[in-house]
Amino acid sequence: MSRTDRASRVIAAPPATVYGALLDRESLEAWLPPDGMRGKVERWDPRPGGGFRMVLTYLDHIDNPGKTSDATDVVDIEFADLTPSERVVQRAVFEADDPSFAGAMTMTWHLSAAGGGTEVTVTATDVPPGIDQAAHEAGIASSLANLASYVEAAG
């Protein structure tokens, strides 16, 4: 059965600014890793059909074992659709030996103007069953909070 996880947040920045942070390598490294992780982009090709590879490292891997190794999650992301200032659709595949993390998860970042800012809604579909739903939604919310802090500080 396919599962969908969601989170949203209003960010005090225009859609074009938020969209730019979704497609900038250094920006992604700064805000995408949820609390308790750090990230490094190893490959970068910001166009439809392109994508990136990110290594996420747990700061406390004893209590939070990774999917790829004891301390890491490695994910290959393909940009499936890029609609400037409106939407970024990503297909994410985790490197993992455990089949409960297998498959392509689709992450849709939808941006809509909201007052003087942007409502960002993230919808993850086809989430692998090995990913805990509550933890995943908390991780997405954490990334959105980081994104808000990042773009609001720059503005």
UniProtKB/TrEMBL annotation:
Gene3D superfamilies: 3.30.530.20
Source species, domain of life: Bacteria
Domain named Activator of Hsp90 ATPase homologue 1/2-like C-terminal: residues: 12-152
SUPFAM superfamilies linked: Bet v1-like
InterPro entries recorded: ASHA1/2-like_C, START-like_dom_sf
Short name of any one Pfam family annotated for the protein: AHSA1
Record's signal peptide: none
Family according to the record: Belongs to the AHA1 family.
Protein name: ATPase
Organism: Nonomuraea diastatica
Lineage: Bacteria, Bacillati, Actinomycetota, Actinomycetes, Streptosporangiales
